[in-house]
Design a protein that fits this description.
Chains A, B: Keywords: Isomerase. Chains A, B: Its EC number is 5.99.1.4. Chains A, B: InterPro entries: DSBA-like_thioredoxin_dom (IPR001853), GST_Kappa/NadH (IPR051924), HCCAis_GSTk (IPR014440), NahD-like (IPR044087), Thioredoxin-like_sf (IPR036249). Two copies of one chain form a homodimer. Chain A is an alpha+beta fold. Chain A has ten helices and four strands. The radius of gyration of chain A is 16 Å and the shape is globular. Chain A has a four-stranded mixed beta sheet, sandwiched between helices.
Chain lengths: 200, 200
């Protein structure tokens, strides 16, 4: 049985950026199929009593995260620029990703949008930026953005977020294998893929 | 110039356990000298408004941390048993470590105490357990425990904790190189040691 993994990512999440850029190659080498699962961290943080990113709530932790991300992206040869404000409003981005089929299009749009957000520091709630990411992914922008506003897509994104919370996800990126093992963070990507390859 | 690194650790910190067990070998291979710097996270967490470990404040994060630590220690061949309560009161342990010379004795005591705490699940505020760790490290227990109660040791530990906070440390384990680069977490041990080896 070929391995499969659920990749839960949030467009406002800093460490989801390197994970999204890496997971395709790491999973392919191991023969593992990736299911791209965009979700929202906001409702999960809110249920912990947080009103913003923990990186803003604890400034020293935030400063170290930005420096760490700088070191990580440099090591990977990825461009890096901090978006302002942080965190970005990721609702429309997550709805667009949800609306796209998980047949390569969703992944391509997601990678393109992360590159604009954390590689160029652009605002991902800006329709022009969302349109650029769609075009980079080879997807006609206007119909995708229109579809993302539909009731069905809103409900689907809410369902994914509720599923994430029910599966004990508390941050992003997170990886869940078919046998229910949860791994949190870009640092655990390799370990999660190995687990998925081993345990189906 | 040979590399040097400051290893800031907290006896109540779960991820300080694998870091303390690994750092000697990783640093030796790179020719880096380790300065063992026990400190207290309590005052730092308190300044963020927290009254206990963030792993207790966010239960899903806590559950994942314990599972992650289980996977990490299994991978390293280290015994693992969750101490109760968590976090342990680490004040006396940190004072004893502070009182010991950083010439191998402090490291030996620290490793022995981590093994009892997270390998056997024992209480590190128990004088009997502290005595066992000292004896394992080849240090006469009674004089070390007596010295740890002295005013000078209390002030020295407070100074290390204040230094950690001034240097932007927000969690444990943390590593600071001579040129001021801060790395957080057991996951960053190798990267921190490489940095220290490269930058003196």
């Amino acid at each position: 049985m070929a391995g499969q993994i659920d990749f839960f990512y949030e467009f406002a999440s800093t460490y989801s950026y390197p994970a999204a850029m890496r997971i395709g190659a790491v999973a392919a080498r191991a023969g593992v199929t990736v299911r791209w699962r965009p979700f929202l961290l906001g409702p999960i943080f809110a249920s912990a009593g947080w009103t913003t990113s923990p990186f803003n709530l604890m400034p020293a932790k935030g400063r170290n995260m930005w420096r760490d991300l700088e070191r990580i992206t440099e090591g990977l040869g990825l461009p890096f620029r901090k978006p302002d404000p942080f965190p970005q409003n990721s609702l429309t981005a997550a709805r667009i990703a949800t609306a796209l089929a998980d047949d390569g299009k969703r992944a391509a749009f997601s990678r393109a949008l992360y590159a604009l957000e954390f590689g160029e520091g652009l605002s991902i709630s800006d329709p022009e930026v969302l349109g650029r990411a769609l075009e980079t992914a080879g997807i006609p922008a206007a119909p995708a953005i229109a579809m993302a506003g539909g009731e069905q897509v809103k409900l689907a994104l809410r369902a994914t977020t509720e599923e994430a919370m029910a599966k004990d996800i508390f941050g992003a990126p997170s990886f869940i294998t078919r046998d229910g093992e949860l791994f949190w963070g870009n640092d655990r990507l390799e370990q999660a893929i190995e687990w998925a390859a081993r345990n189906g």
